[in-house]
Amino acid sequence: YQPTQGTLTFQPGETQKNITVPILGDTKVEPHETFKLNLSNPINAQLQDNGGIGTIRNNDLAKVSIKDAEITEGDDGTKQLKFDVTLNTKVNKRVEVNYATVDGTAKQDSDYQPKEGKIVFKPNQKKKTITVPILGDTLKEEDETFSVKLSKPKNVQLGDKSAVGTIEDNDENSGEPGDSFQTALDLGKLTEEVVVVDDIGFTRGSYRDTNDFYRFQTDKEGDFALFLDGLFKDANVELYGSGEELINQSKNDGNNPEIIITTLEPGNYFVRVYPQGSSRTPYRLSIDLL
Q1: Which of 102, 150, 250, 269 has the fewest CB neighbours in a 10 Å radius?
Q2: Distance between CA 219 and CA 25 in Å, rounded?
Q3: 159, 189 in Cβ contact below 8 A?
């Protein structure tokens, strides 16, 4: 505030006067503040209450923000991608804010495990962490992204309310037929059961075969059935659309058969067979449109 002093004069018959004190605004988060205005040296009057309290109420809130994060994808299992959530200043109250993951080019349950919840800052805490599990694979692909968004703040306002999580790919194609979407082996138009016998996870020279891609077409809507059996070790299977978007998957433990049953519309599709971790196994792939 600006300090103020002077003489207050009541004309004959007047009983009330105002003293104006300029208050200086700011954006600092702080408790309510007070100052005192004192009266002195009365003439033709007596002092009854010679001190008044002026209260400056704070109208500013701290800001909560979330930072972008990135991680290199693994070949198997999960890694933990950590997002820092921070307050720009200490707050002497409990602060809460909700968060949730949102798909981008990275998809939940395929590239990362979705998470949502609430972050709580205790009084005077300034930093918390959101951890999102990233799912490893051996699929050669572009770097992928998803978002973590903040909402419903309590005792705080939103600053940077959305962060981008980048999953950097660490896989390389061998250049062999069938090891990527681009070189997928063509099974043709699906008019009857198609069976493929092959193996996955074995090393040939300096290259380990970790991806077998197949593509096929359908010209009618129907019930699609996929079976992956004949396994000695653990292998998994995924079904993709023409835009390389994941439609369905099967990841049973051990050498149990993998099964996908779904309805497909006319179009182009991909199947990916891949080993679980370091497994090496033959397999029998059967697909059919009923």
Answers
A1: 102
A2: 69
A3: no
Q: Which two tokens stand for residue 260?
A: 């996908």
Q: What is the pLDDT of residues 9-65, one digit of tens each?
A: 999 999 999 999 999 987 676 678 899 999 999 999 999 999 999 999 877 688 999
Which single residue is written with the structure tokens 């798909």?
103
Phi then psi for 22, rounded to 5 degrees? -65, 130
SS3 labels along the chain: CCCCCCCCCCCCCCCCCCCCCCCCCCCCCCCCEEEEEECCCCCCCCCCCCEEEEEECCCCCCEEEECCEEEECCCCCEEEEEEEEEECCCCCCCEEEEEEEEECCCCECCCECCCEEEEEECCCCCEEEEEEEEECCCCCCCCEEEEEEEEEEECCEECCCEEEEEEECCCCCCCCCCCCCCCCEEEEECCCCEEEEEEECCEECCEECCCEEEEEEECCCEEEEEEEECCCCCEEEEEECCCCCEEEEECCCCCCCEEEEEEECCEEEEEEEEECCCCCEEEEEEEEEC
Say if residue 201 is exposed, middle or buried (CB neighbours under 10 Å; 0-12, 13-18, 19+). Answer: buried
Strand order in the sheet with 212-218: 185-189, 212-218, 267-275, 235-240, 246-250
Q: pTM for the whole thing?
A: 0.50
The per-residue pLDDT of the chain, averaged, comes to: 90
Q: Tell me the CA distances in angstroms from 285 to 10, 41, 97, 179, 227, one per residue in order.
A: 100, 101, 47, 16, 6
For residue 258, count other CB atoms closer than 10 A to its CB: 21
Is residue 255 within 8 Å of 234, Cβ to Cβ? yes
